[in-house]
Structures are given as structure tokens and as C-alpha cells.
């Protein structure tokens, strides 16, 4: 995508992040920030997502696990297609994360596309993110940007409020079903069976809305049971001041090798 295509996209925040939004992120481990990105960013990213789906990176994974429809996931897409780079370096994303962290700087860990097409039966398994990644520290979080209207029927993510403060770390489980991760951490409890005991929140979202959740916040998402509503999300993972590199065997690789 030519540079001129991004020249009119806003670089700064359209509004300040409120004290209540900062509190929700830090205390609940999850916050929904409405209309964090305008229609220009949404349309720019929609085009970039379609370009990646037509020509995925070598990091593409089959995460359908034999289900119906198509659950598409690709990572390190900013290194695969230049159209994603303006979001990383020029959008309000980094400022949002620094504000929520209370951090003097932020670093991108990686980015990701997660698309659940209509009729996709595959759910996103219960998990928390940080134990998949070669980082140590508490200021690790995911910004999940909705590119379509999102609700419970087409795959809105569910979050267990406050779970980032439990002091627990659970073993990563494979989203492809191949057992690729190895860990001495305990397995996740059966959170589905524990629903009545948990404080679970799920947000209906419009394009441009984001959620930001801590890397230790437990979450999951249903499939997309709708006949005609896509659920496209552009997801970026960020680190703050207290995060250090912590490579460990048997976790998600942080490598990208372009063609």
C-alpha cells in the first residue's frame, strides 16, 4: 500500500484515556475503550487484513481444529505486509498502552490477525497469554481492535475480571490441537465448568472499539454462529518498562522469516 494511503490517518489520540479506564485495566485486567480508532484506521486495516488473507505469511497456523467455517490466524503481519507498519509506528496504539501501563516506553512484541468467518464453529480456548511468550514482567498486554461489529453470536471474547491478580500461571495449550507447547506449569482448570463462580465480562463492540487485557487475564471466545457477520480483529501485543526478554523452551516462537 503506498505511503500516501496513510497520510490522512490520525497519529494522536482522539480523546484522553480516562482515569476510570486506567483503573479498570489495572484492577480488572480488562478494559473496553470505545472508538479508540476512527473509520480511517478501520478501513485501512480491513484492506490490510484482506491482503494478508489472500497472501498469508509463513507464520500462518491452522487453528480450525477440524471445525466448520474458517478461523484464520496469522502473526508478525507487520513484517509481512508494509500496510500494517503505520499502525505500529504512527497510530495512537502505543500511547494508549503507555497510559494504561503507566510506562515511560512501550515495545511491540508482535501483531496478529484473528478472523472468524460466518459459520465458524471453532472456539478460542480458555487461556492467558503471558505464558506463551518469551517475556517476564507484569506490563504485558494485548490490544484487540474490532474491525467488524462484535457480539456473543459472532465471537466476542469473554474475560475473567481480576484473574491477572490471582498470582497463578497456567501451562499454554495448543490452539492447533497438536500439543506443541511444553511446560512444567499446572494445566488450566475447567473454567467452562466454573462459570457460575467467576466474574466474566463480554463486550459488544463496534468497529474502532478496542479491548486491552493484561497478559495474565484469563479469556476465551465462542465461535461465530452467525450466517453472515464476519469477526475480523487486528491484535497487537505490547510490553512496558518492567518487561525483560525471557526465552524458554517449548513456547511460542518469536521468529519471522520472510520469503
Notable traits:
259 residues, alpha+beta, seven-stranded antiparallel beta sheet, four-stranded antiparallel beta sheet, 5 helices, 13 strands, 17% helix, disordered N terminus
Q: Could you provide a short overview of the structure?
A:
This protein has helices at residues 19-28, 39-54, 77-80, 85-90, 93-101; strands spanning 30-33, 61-62, 71-75, 107-116, 124-127, 135-136, 140-146, 158-160, 200-202, 210-214, 219-221, 231-239, 244-245.
Please give the radius of gyration in angstroms. 17 Å
Q: How far is the first residue's CA from the last residue's CA?
A: 18 Å
Number of strands: 13
Spatial shape = globular
What is the SS-derived class? alpha+beta
Helical stretch count? 5
Rounded mean pLDDT is 92
Please provide the ordered H/E string of secondary-structure elements. Answer: HEHEEHHHEEEEEEEEEE
Strand order of the largest sheet: 1-10-7-12-4-3-2
Report on this structure.
The protein is an alpha+beta fold and 259 residues long. 17% of the residues lie in helices and 23% in strands. It contains five helices and 13 strands. A hairpin with an 8-residue loop joins strand 2 (61-62) and strand 3 (71-75). Mean pLDDT is 92; it is low at 1-5.
Amino acid at each position: 500500500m503506498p505511503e500516501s494511503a496513510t497520510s490522512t490517518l490520525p497519529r494522536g489520540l482522539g480523546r484522553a484515556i480516562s482515569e476510570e479506564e486506567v483503573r479498570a485495566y489495572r484492577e480488572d485486567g480488562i478494559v473496553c475503550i470505545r472508538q479508540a480508532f476512527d473509520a480511517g484506521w478501520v478501513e485501512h486495516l480491513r484492506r490490510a487484513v484482506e491482503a494478508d488473507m489472500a497472501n498469508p505469511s509463513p507464520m500462518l497456523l491452522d487453528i480450525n481444529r477440524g471445525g466448520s467455517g474458517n478461523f484464520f490466524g496469522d502473526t508478525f503481519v507487520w513484517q509481512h505486509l508494509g500496510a500494517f507498519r503505520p499502525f505500529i509506528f504512527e497510530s495512537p496504539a502505543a500511547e494508549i498502552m503507555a497510559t494504561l501501563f503507566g510506562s515511560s516506553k512501550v515495545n511491540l512484541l508482535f501483531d496478529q490477525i484473528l478472523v472468524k468467518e460466518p459459520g465458524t464453529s471453532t472456539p478460542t480456548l480458555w487461556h492467558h497469554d503471558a505464558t506463551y511468550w518469551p517475556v517476564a514482567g507484569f506490563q504485558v498486554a494485548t490490544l484487540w481492535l474490532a474491525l467488524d461489529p462484535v457480539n456473543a453470536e459472532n465471537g466476542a471474547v469473554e474475560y475473567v475480571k481480576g484473574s491477572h491478580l490471582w498470582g497463578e500461571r497456567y501451562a499454554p495449550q495448543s490452539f492447533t490441537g497438536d500439543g506443541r507447547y511444553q511446560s512444567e506449569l499446572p494445566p488450566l482448570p475447567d473454567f467452562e465448568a466454573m462459570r457460575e463462580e467467576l466474574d466474566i465480562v463480554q463486550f459488544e463492540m463496534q468497529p474502532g472499539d478496542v479491548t486491552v487485557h493484561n497478559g495474565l487475564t484469563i479469556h476465551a471466545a465462542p465461535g461465530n454462529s452467525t450466517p453472515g457477520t464476519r469477526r475480523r480483529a487486528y491484535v497487537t501485543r505490547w510490553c512496558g518498562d518492567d518487561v525483560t526478554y525471557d526465552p524458554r523452551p517449548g513456547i511460542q516462537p518469536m521468529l519471522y522469516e520472510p520469503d
